[in-house]
Amino acid sequence: MPEQFAISAAPDEIFERYRQVNLIDGVRVPAKAALDVINPATGLVIGQAAASGRAETGAAVASAKAAQESWAQLPARERGKRVTAAACAVLEKAEVIAQVLACETGKAIRTECRGEVAVAADIVEFYGNLGSELKGQTVPYNPRMLTLTTREPLGVVAAIVPWNVPLVLFALKVGPALVAGNTVVVKSSEEAPFATFLMAELMMQHLPAGVLNVINGTGKDCGAALTGHPDIAKITFTGSEAVGEEINKVAAGRIIPVSLELGGKSPMIVCADADLDKAVTGAIAGMRFTRQGQSCTAASRIYVHDSLISAFLERLGAQLDQLVIGDPLDEKTDIGAIINARQAARINAYVAQAEATEGATVARYGTLPADAGLSPDLFAQPTIVTGLPDDHPCVMEEIFGPVAVVSGWSDYDAVIALANSTHYGLAASVWTRSLSMALDSTARLNAGYVQVNQNLTIQPNVSYGGFGRSGQGKEASLEAMVEHFTRSKTIVMN
Ligand code: NAD
């Protein structure tokens, strides 16, 4: 079992603790090279994370491989108890984890980071309690023979996470993988590694050495070394569509299972009979404006019935104007900073394309912070675009910023067709008081997660995952653990 460690509530201490190290075999192991980690809100370097390559990745996989057999031999319920204890250890240090997360992601501590730590710990705890649910079946075949199926772990799992909700996505992968008896090597996001390292190290205090390993580095050097390693039995990835496609090819070449949670362009349909106030609040929550719109499920295409669109836009604008944009660590802040200059430039390019489109209107809300010490270019106002053609890039492509396109509709079949017109299929929502409209639209929408009159965040016990180019496989829920982190073995005894 790795040593216990004491930390005060100071993010600087955490950045120093993880300076150019990986977490391998239960200890911090120096890496050969380092990468700067920048606080997007200030533009300042907050620390140097490991820039791992083939050697560090190989060491982490070797540690996970060596630990796997004895971990798998523990009774599943015992593994679950340890994972539950690991979740409690995370909650004990929730505030410092949230501060670290705010510093490295630019997300506001009050509206985003504290909630993310709580949800991540909740997911790990949820899986910890499912150890005894890993059941097989007996099959009636021949009364003189015993035929049964058992569920067994896959081996060493490679888990790769992005920067936008790194802890929740870490939890959705690590929780079920460990309880199912696998060992794991996580590659953290090089943009935001430190909160992931801290959460992992707190968990590792309750796990045998080698069961959970975390390495950091770029996708090209560390991510590719991990997915291509011959001892990896399964890849679980959350990130962009382009990288997901690349990883899918790697997995296909090695014939190993892969789960992909990729991008989205989620539609929100507001019907003529919707509760307008509820729909406006739901649009703000669904667009994840408090995460600067940097969310895969962001309700970024909002189709409002023609009879409501003027009132909807007016109320939406009034509420968006109230959101405070500023320092992520300030308790008054609702909206923090965009992750990096590359992402900010991408968002600006989409907005410029909208502005250059005839008939389009671009409205920005809220006030950009003027505080000296904050990076002026990395803050963006919530932006609502209207009057775009249905096939405009801002309508069809994932922007991953605080930009929503609002369009009117009057023909129900046509709006369903528009909602289904992108190559994504992650989430969708419908706002109506009519049960028949709810039943019909939810059946026809081409998305893996469809909600009526709400745009909530993930629930640990409800399976989540996209259709089409939004990915393959599910996360959250018991089914996700059984289907994606175990394999079925048939045993016939004559
Ligand atoms: P990204 O694809 O650039 O990077 C994701 C992770 O993959 C990072 O850790 C990165 O280092 C690694 N990586 C990059 N190239 C790799 C390679 N060749 N091999 C192995 N690993 C590699 O994505 P990002 O910019 O960090 O995150 C934003 C994207 O994530 C958006 O498209 C968003 O929609 C998606 N996302 C999806 C979900 C979901 O649940 N569907 C959730 C959050 C984010």
UniProtKB/TrEMBL annotation:
UniProt keyword terms in alphabetical order: Oxidoreductase
PROSITE patterns: ALDEHYDE_DEHYDR_CYS, ALDEHYDE_DEHYDR_GLU
A Pfam short name: Aldedh
Entry superkingdom: Bacteria
Active site: 261
Keyword Oxidoreductase: yes
InterPro entries for the chain: Ald_DH/histidinol_DH (IPR016161), Ald_DH_C (IPR016163), Ald_DH_CS_CYS (IPR016160), Ald_DH_CS_GLU (IPR029510), Ald_DH_N (IPR016162), Aldehyde_DH_dom (IPR015590)
UniProt entry tagged with the keyword Oxidoreductase: yes
Domain Aldehyde dehydrogenase: 34-491
GO molecular function: oxidoreductase activity, acting on the aldehyde or oxo group of donors, NAD or NADP as acceptor
PANTHER family: ALDEHYDE DEHYDROGENASE-RELATED
Similarity-based family: Belongs to the aldehyde dehydrogenase family.
Name of this protein: Aldehyde dehydrogenase
Organism whose genome encodes this protein: Pseudooceanicola lipolyticus
